[in-house]
Amino acid sequence: MPPLEDMMHAFLRESHDEHLRQAMQYSLDAGGKRLRPLLTLATCVVLGGDVANARPAAAAVEFVHTYSLIHDDLPAMDDSDMRRGQPANHIKFGEATAILAGDALLTDAFSMLARTPDQVLIPDLLMTLATAAGSQGMVAGQMQDIDGSHEQLDKAALIRLDRHKTGALLRAAVRNGALCAGASLKQLQLLDDFAAAFGLGFQVKDDIEDASGTVAELGKPVGQDVDNAKNTYVALYGLAGAQNKLQEQRQLARKALAQLDGNMALLEQITDYLN
Ligand code: GRG
After folding, report:
1. In the chain, which residue ranges form alpha helices assigned H by DSSP?
2. What is the band of 48 on the pLDDT scale with cuts at 50, 70, 90?
């Protein structure tokens, strides 16, 4: 098993409750792409940092992401029965256990981060992830999504929503990788430009796939956005417009990378996800 997976599983084994551990592991092992940890590790590597320091940050951001998906699927949120091609956590384990599994993943993420080998890095890493996950980040975005679901948002409001809901965690993944490599202020800024463009492109791609993909491709029901009258880029820009927006964000991400010194091939390859 690769070291990142080892680290996450070893942490889960420390749980004082086997039922809870199983529910956490079920969603963690459900076949996610590990995009956020990949961004953390790749950012650290391209800047020449020590990956040993970035591993806890990579695992932590995946824990937060997994929690968010478990809670997002709950009946009180998006009410989705399927995730990553399998029954959602609350379908498999029941609602109470799913809530607790999410709570535990979120909280444990910070314990894991606090075990970063270079202790000097820990406060900034904690602050980055906490800010991205909480009321200034992902949870704010989820609130904007719920509140906005009763009205048609304009383009600016949709971008604001997605910057919080999806973009904040992706940006934190990149920033923490950069912090682990001792990035300069200039590098942090350019990498944040990269991550912001990547994050927006990522959400546009998700909207396009929901509108035009298949269940087999996505591992979850399709057309949910239309069914739930969701505010999406496809609804606002049309399919062709959303595709243009996606390419625009991909180019912006590439442009930011091109301004950084050194070999950015690893991050460029991740940008290809937006194709
Ligand atoms: C419940 C506080 C709380 C927040 C939920 C992120 C989120 C906020 C909800 C997810 C809703 C959603 C489907 C957003 C679209 C973008 C997205 C985050 C897709 C899933 O991310 P991937 O594709 O997932 O990286 P995998 O399964 O590969 O890990």
Report:
1. 3-13, 18-28, 35-46, 51-73, 89-93, 95-113, 122-133, 138-148, 155-162, 168-180, 185-212, 215-218, 224-227, 233-258, 265-271
2. very high
Query: With bands split at pLDDT 50, 70 and 90, how would you rate the model's confidence at 84?
Result: confident
What span, in angstroms and rounded, lies between the C-alpha atoms of 113 and 102?
A: 17
- Choose which residue among 66, 73, 206, 233 to substitute to test ligand 1 binding: the one with the highest number of ligand atoms within 8 A of its C-beta: 206
Give every CB contact of residue 33 below 8 A, 6+ residues apart in sequence: none
**What's the 3 CA to ligand 1 centre distance in angstroms?**
24
> Does 220 score more than 90 pLDDT?
no
* CB distance 142 to 149 below 8 Å: no
Give the 3-state secondary structure of 241-272.
Answer: HHHHHHHHHHHHHHHHHHCCCCCCHHHHHHHH
For ligand 1, atom 3: residue with the closest CA? 68
Tell me, in angstroms, the distance from the centre of ligand 1 to residue 166's CA. 7
Distance of CA 219 to the CA centre of its chain: 17
Q: Is the pLDDT of residue 217 over 90?
A: no
| pTM recorded for the entire structure | 0.95
**Closest alpha carbon to 169 in 272, 72, 241:** 72
Residue 214 has pLDDT above 80, yes or no: no
